[in-house]
Amino acid sequence: VYNELWKKGTTIPAGTESSVGLVGLVLGGGIGMLSRLFGLTCDNLLEVEMAIVNELREVELIKVNKNHNSDLFWACCGGGGGNFGIVTSLTFKVQPISKVSIFSITWEWEDFEAAFDAWQHWATNTDKRLTSEIELKSKEANQIIAQGEFVGSSFKLKELLQPLIDVGCPKKVVIKEVSYIEAVRFFDDPSGNQPAPRKRSGSFLNKPFPKEAILTMKHFLENAPNEKSSIWHQSLGGAVEEVGSNETAFYYRDAIIAQEYLATWSHPSEERANIRWIEELRNALSRYTTGDYVNWPDRLIRDWPTAYYGENFKKLREVKRAYDPYNLFYFPQSIPPFINWF
Predict the structure, then answer these.
(1) Alpha carbon 106 to chain centroid distance?
(2) Is residue 86 a contact partner of residue 97, using CB atoms and an 8 Å limit?
(3) Are residues 104 and 181 located together in one domain of the fold?
(4) What integer pLDDT is reported at residue 338 of this predicted model?
(5) 219 and 234: one domain?
(6) 188: pLDDT confidence band, cut at 50, 70 and 90?
(7) 266-277 as b/e, with b when 16 or more CB fall inside 10 Å?
(8) Contact 154, 176 (CB under 8 A)
């Protein structure tokens, strides 16, 4: 999609890994390197064409937008994929784009606390044209890396980055102006596109982590199951928070950071230890975090409806009843139809 839109000098704010399917991304919300400027992927969605199974048990192709089947359109903007029908077409509002500036700052383990604390206070308060991420890798990997994309000049980006560059002793700082499609390729992690045994989970931060939470992350990464374990964060705010939490099914509009827990392993014997590490990490940080992003599904979350959808779950169940009354589109964490008991 990025490649095709680039031919017209346009884009949509979407994800970073090229293996991610656009339909699933947008139905769950969609975060990426243009989120703070242009909003979530679903905020740029204009219309969906969907095949549903109606009350007569017949397949029906319907248009879904703010004027037609508006309740289903609301649900398609963050209510998760696979719940209501089969999406056959998407129509987006596109954004003009040409050159952007990108950055990468790398620190070693000794700057763990200072680098993360500086990033978390800076990332959601800086210019909304700048969206960034920071990945805290295991102590064994010995790398803390912040990256981001700015829709503006490299000169201005360097000025905005100075608070981060001044922290600790960065081992590498890269700032450059590139074509937008080069930036897309820069953020596309090839390792994330390869099939592998892995476990992911996540949460949101509504306020910066206190020192105790940062030390908790550090402790887990010091005792990670292997070198590939990490904790990833992306800045939100900006255009994302300009939409109300009940205006779309994506509930966590007030979150300042999306946080993802990652574990990958090589041998089946390592699976249990890695899954346990993710679950213990999530539980240890839960007092400082809220919810989870539905596009990082975790079958071990007990109250997954609240974790994914917050106060929007009841309305999602009502939409489910209206468009999939027989619960044909069912899977372990699918939205169940709302039932009235008399």
Answers:
(1) 22
(2) no
(3) yes
(4) 85
(5) yes
(6) very high
(7) eeeeeeeebbeb
(8) yes
